[in-house]
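User: Sequence in, structure out. Go.
Assistant: Echoing your sequence, followed by the structure tokens.
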Amino acid sequence: MNPINIAIKLVSSFSVLLLFLIIFQVFRSLTLVLYYDLFQELSFQEIVQSFVLGIRFDLSVISVFLGVPLLLLILPFRFSDQYFYQVLFHTIIYLALLGFIIFLAADLLYFSYVKRHITNEIIFLLNDTDYLLSEAKANGTSLAGLLLLALLGYPLYLRFTSKYHRPQRHSMLAVVLLFLLLVTIARGGFQMKPLSVVDAYQHGNSAMGNLALNGLFTASKYSITSEWVQRNEQQSENYASVLGFNNPANPEFPFEIKREKKFPRKKAKNLVILMVESLTTKYVDSLANNNYKVTPNLDRLVHEGVSFVNFFASGQRSVDGIQSIVTGVPPLPGMPNITSLSANYSRLAKLAETNGYQHIFITTTHRESFYLDAIAAAAGFSEYYGKEDFPIILDYPNDRDRWVGWDYEALMYLLQQIEEMQAPYFAFVNASADHTPFVELQPPFNQYEHGSDTEGGYLNMLHYTDWAIGEFIEKFKRRKDFDDTIFMITADHALAHFQSNDPYARFRVPLIVYAPKLIKSHSSQKFGAQTDLLPTIINLLDLEGAYATIGRDLFQPNPGFAVVKDGALVNIFTPQGFLQHSLKQIVDKQLTREDPSGSTQAGLEKKLIAFDHLTYHLLSKNRWFSQ
């Protein structure tokens, strides 16, 4: 056993690890500089702590991806010293380096949209070639520059690694020591449980946690595995009581309700849900008074319908919104969504069907985009259409065949389809025209300076969508069943990209219920989330049958609350204020009044934990719904 040989072999591996670690720290520094407004409350000491803590997360993901090639490079055999052998595995490592840089750059860009790192969105992105191609087209110059740098950097990397390679210095002990080291840093240390995303928030500060984390670590934790993140066990009855679910008909399934019709002789009402991409309260003038002047039709519907000014998206992705609305199952950290959830849950379309409803799901996107075809089927929709199924009607000046499609065409196609339906019917439209990259349009949808990823570009697209909705409603008014139809207009999620770090701005979305002949217009201050729409819809349509939900009817007289998924964290919004939790400790809070006794904070934390843990407990035990 020669200590010199061991040291020489390990130095070559350490040099590679150090190079990768520098890359991660560069991107962490860019995150801090480019989005400094999100971290400006941190002291210099807290920033340093975040960078030091970040090394654990960086080394953890680096060792997982590089462990095998690093070990193969120092095998104590003659063939491992061959030039071809060394170049082969260093080329693999260099390709990994390029992949890391591309991913970290994408994560840096994504951070500006949702103020956090990528989690399981990566699965949906990698499986949606249309979206990836559109983004590649929009960023072609940057990609070409990156490719050129990659070609120029390859020989420099080989020269760098050759400095630390010493042939004929074989050591099996070096291999063993490196293996043990890589396993240790992959786990994040010697603690009992492997390093997890939640460990980044150990200081109780969301900004420090976001700075310490990297997108590769969060994406691998929430995408490569669909395993549940385990919660502490507790009797579900305790949590149910905190949430107000007292004395359920079936304690085994505390959320299950068997509803009977209250007005069996009344004519059934139709329902049309318009879920608009990234529709955010800030940009609707009648709700936020910001005078953007791009939502005249939505403003009219706000005044003529019921508007919920404290309504929140349940998550930050389209699948989160759809899942919450049509199944009542909330998206939460470490829990599979309905594309992989193996538990029984309610299906709004199926329940409507048992009440004599026909149902239809239309998306402006390609049918298979973002697994929407599978999601619609899982939610019980029997008729499903995408952009392949309807023609382009208008003369769009640019990107006529864009992958996210156009809202006007989808809405006109819905009018055509329901002509053939026998009432009552339930229609769901996923209107995604306002998705990036934004397209430059003709007047009057160009009052703001265009940009494919700018706020001006979004506002112009929102103006177009508002016009399309207005046209749809006006044409619908000519139908005989207009007086018997309820329209719900909301978003899949908020547009977090151009918002401040204010948690309300990142999750508050409009909810407009428009049925002028059925529901008196008013503005509601009640707090609610997309998970509350399932019971609200069931009661509005007076459906009978069994269903399960953690949500509450928004038209019932109680102040309400909203629990939402914020990446690896959970937020709660109530009239008493906002609280953010890592499921281990409070990370952030904004209370509406002084709380010297701490009772308000304790009450918010208790309700948030009960909501999260009871959802986990019932879904993981398949006790959400009995059918």
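User: And one key feature?
Assistant: Residues 328 and 549 are 5 Å apart (CA to CA).
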